[in-house]
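ok new one. same drill as before - structure tokens go in, u give me an amino acid for every spot. 163 of them this time. try not to just spam alanines like last time pls lmao
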């Protein structure tokens, strides 16, 4: 696709700076949200880089995701005339401030924790008003005074059988 060299260089610069690029599959969009270039030119430029093996492409939910490969980094360095010290943001290590995290108190300050099953068993035994055993009074065998009342549903005897 014919496009101005200036636009191609803007796309290359953004891709090299970030290391990744995302574009919505909208060929009619006036411009890409991150680059001042039409979205169609971004998609076509990166399709060209993909066919040459300089980026990996992933497509999901109407969005293209492109990731630079090592060959792509070298190609963009040559195309943009950059020194080897400059690397994409995806290859830079992020430094985390270790001093910002507060130290956790050791075991001497905190209260001892009960074993895993002890607190559950204690809750079932003591729980509720009256301190009754919750598990013992629940279920089918909790009461022994069963009442069977016949005559309901399909098993109901007919009027002739009752007399």
């Amino acid at each position: 696709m014919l496009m101005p060299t200036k636009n191609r260089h803007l796309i290359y610069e953004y891709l090299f700076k970030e290391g990744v690029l995302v574009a919505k599959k909208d060929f009619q969009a006036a411009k890409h949200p991150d680059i001042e270039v039409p979205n169609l030119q971004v998609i076509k430029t990166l399709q060209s880089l993909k066919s040459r093996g300089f980026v990996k492409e992933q497509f999901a939910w109407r969005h293209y995701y492109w990731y630079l490969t090592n060959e792509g980094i070298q190609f963009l360095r040559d195309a943009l005339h950059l020194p080897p010290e400059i690397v994409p943001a995806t290859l830079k290590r992020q430094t985390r401030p270790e001093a910002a995290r507060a130290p956790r108190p050791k075991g001497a300050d905190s209260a001892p924790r009960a074993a895993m099953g002890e607190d559950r068993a204690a809750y079932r035994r003591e729980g509720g008003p009256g301190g009754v055993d919750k598990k013992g009074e629940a279920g089918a065998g909790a009461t022994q005074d069963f009442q069977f009342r016949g005559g309901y549903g399909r098993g109901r005897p007919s009027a002739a059988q009752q007399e």
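The mean pLDDT is 80. and btw Residues 53 and 132 are 72 Å apart (CA to CA).
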